[in-house]
Amino acid sequence: xxxxxxxxxxxxxxxxxxxxxxxxxxxxxxxxxxxxxxxxxxxxxxxxxxxxxxxxxxxxxxxxxxxxxxxxxxxxxxxxxxxxxxxxxxxxxxxxxxxxxxxxxxxxxxxxxxxxxxxxxxxxxxxxxxxxxxxxxxxxxxxxxxxxxxxxxxxxxxxxxxxxxxxxxxxxxxxxxxxxxxxxxxxxxxxxxxxxxxxxxxxxxxxxxxxxxxxxxxxxxxxxxxxxxxxxxxxxxxxxxxxxxxxxxxxxxxxxxxxxxxxxxxxxxxxxxxxxxxxxxxxxxxxxxxxxxxxxxxxxxxxxxxxxxxxxxxxxxxxxxxxxxxxxxxxxxxxxxxxxxxxxxxxxxxxxxxxxxxxxxxxxxxxxxxxxxxxxxxxxxxxxxxxxxxxxxxxxxxxxxxxxxxxxxxxxxxxxxxxxxxxxxxxxxxxxxxxxxxxxxxxxxxxxxxxxxxxxxxxxxxxxxxxxxxxxxxxxxxxxxxxxxxxxxxxxxxxxxxxxxxxxxxxxxxxxxxxxxxxxxxxxxxxxxxxxxxxxxxxxxxxxxxxxxxxxxxxxxxxxxxxxxxxxxxxxxxxxxxxxxxxxxxxxxxxxxxxxxxxxxxxxxxxxxxxxxxxxxxxxxxxxxxxxxxxxxxxxxxxxxxxxxxxxxxxxxxxxxxxxxxxxxxxxxxxxxxxxxxxxxxxxxxxxxxxxxxxxxxxxxxxxxxxxxxxxxxxxxxxxxxxxxxxxxxxxxxxxxxxxxxxxxxxxxxxxxxxxxxxxxxxxxxxxxxxxxxxxxxxxxxxxxxxx
Length: 788
Fold this sequence. Notes:
19 helices, 21% strand, single chain, alpha+beta
């Protein structure tokens, strides 16, 4: 490690192992010292009090690496009397490498009550030589300084739970709670931290736990550990249920611990009523005041041997739900970048902010889900989705975009989103994440977590980047899902690789990509192109040809992408409000603002859908049918196809039994010729353009044939429920026959809950509307009861 400073730096250590020498650069003189025996403050560094010595950071101070700079600042901080943290990093727009790094006082910011917004920091910038130089500095603090000992960043403990005494009061000092095992394919609970390689031992021979009314615990932590132990012995799993807060000060007054099969939010849940409620007493203890032991499903008691074997091999999740003692995040990733098996691009300060946010949201939204990946005790990736996003996925999760375009910029935070397309053709949020690194394992965790949050709702197609790690993760988690490469990344690589090519090549390249109608056409044109310009061995072109089925329009026909254009990038769902360069202090407010604007736009479209009607432009009955069913934006697409169909001629070319085949071509353009096949027996129809398969709306060629056949109504199978006005309120129309009753019930619960939320919002806007809403609900309840 090399420190570069003024001649006074380490002036007391000048010896054969620390020899200063001079270098002159213009008018500036740099004095370098190489203290071979000096590494860390806790290695008995013989340095005078920093305030009066040469151990002072200054502009121009040079280091071999950013880690050296961090260690130097930690030494300085220890002697001055404060602690440090690793602050923001800034990346190069050229290659994405780290270009500069901030090291700050531990009291910088306001995310925790212990922080005071201290402005003290140093920033080091990487030079072309590879050295790191201090280019910004602020030494003044806004709090008192004192003697501190340098401490290394601690990590989450990985200890084996020890045996408990027979008392109901379970000893537990760790702030981390082991909550419940995650089965291989089962959805995990909302609000948790998932662990890798955390091993636990046996039960230590504890006596059997048995809850009863009046049982007292010293904390919610003890109560939950007790209930887990009881559940293990009885043969069921647990979750954290509702919490109740004081109207006076907002503190938690009671908490429900429930069977994991309580409710209907996931297909695995059966509405089990077993629970234990604990209530806070004036003395500060917690007492069981309500209890239900009976379950409505089979239990699977486990022997001690089974418990040892299973707990030693399974992953565990740790709860950070509001209502349990708050997770001590000062023990997670504090200070410098954590040491973990894969690296982490998320600053430690982000975890405090996000987990506080997720806990507060979950207290208000019972459908809110979040999960934190933990690797060897270190927090890694974070995923979250609110109840509305999870419900939207049940309707619009058939085609999704995984937006990791943060990598295009000099990002501060690796913020990614899962986005779908709703029935108004608007982007709809299906989940968010901070991605710790870009490894295959990180993306596998992310996709598996999203799948759990969405109750196993697998998309038909995913639009995501073409990085090998993402390709492998999608193939692993979504084996039957079609992966289409992101347009922005394709364009980026085209700009980079076509820059040196002649304009003629660019023209022929685009003609090959977008004008090919068959596989043979594409192969012929591609081979002619690379041979003509001598590019058969071009690495980029060879790779793109091998992956042609994931980006060339010809090969993507027939896969449903909800009408997301192949040659255009989908706009960011957060628009100007949020991006990968948004600073920590502004992230949550901007996130909320951007999300609210999107949902306000959706509410406006809902209003327009209910109150406005498009004008008919033909006398065809199918136009009136689609105007009645489709949302205005989707009807506009259909109407355009209907009007265009009058420019085409349909000629019957084949008929055998009930099967009829038509050749449909554009008037005056023989080159645009499509084939439409129609079955009179079951009203099945298909077109070689495959627009319906890709967008879910019938094309002009099929509509031309329907008009020739004088069809007055489009078969219901060609009117996708996801594009209709009632897409958010009905769920049974587009379900596969194999969907279980439990899955259907879960989605009905979500659908009714979402409708009820909108109903409540409207019904509480005035006293008159409230009275009307109550009357409607009473009448509705009577009708529902009569139906039963």
